[in-house]
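Justification of computing resources. Each target in the renewal requires a structure prediction run like the one illustrated here; the chain below, 161 residues long, is used simply to show the kind of job we budget for.
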Amino acid sequence: MSHRHDQDRVWDLIDSIKVAMLVTHDGEGDGLRARPMHAHGHREEDTIYFLTDRRHHKDDEIQINDNICLAFADTGRQRYLSVTGTATVLDDPERVRDLWEAPDKAYWDDENDPDIRVLRVRPSMAEFWDSPGRIVTSVKMAAAALTGARPKLGDNRKVAL
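Resulting structure tokens:
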């Protein structure tokens, strides 16, 4: 597989899974914090965007240490993606309007809420695990148990972005 193909695969996984656990440094020593966030992948910009609320701790944590990790998981199809990069919190009402979706009303009244910020992630490295699915994986595991051979359960690659 080509490097470009692997990069496209990373972006396809971001687009299809959509929810990532955003991991930040907690600002108190070496602790880490994770929380689910809705990802908006913009491959043409090599950027992943999130809407966030300026009143929450993740914004403060990113100002202290901008290194983050995003963990995507689609357990039903046995597909996983880890992305590392740097994050920046932006006050960008125009981008908020571009990213705004109906489910965001669960957190804010509308896209004009003054507490909404844009979290911009510039990915530098990714690693994916992409299997053929739960049923095929189960069959391959059973066959491996019977034959003693190691099963090929899908693709796992590290990708520079």
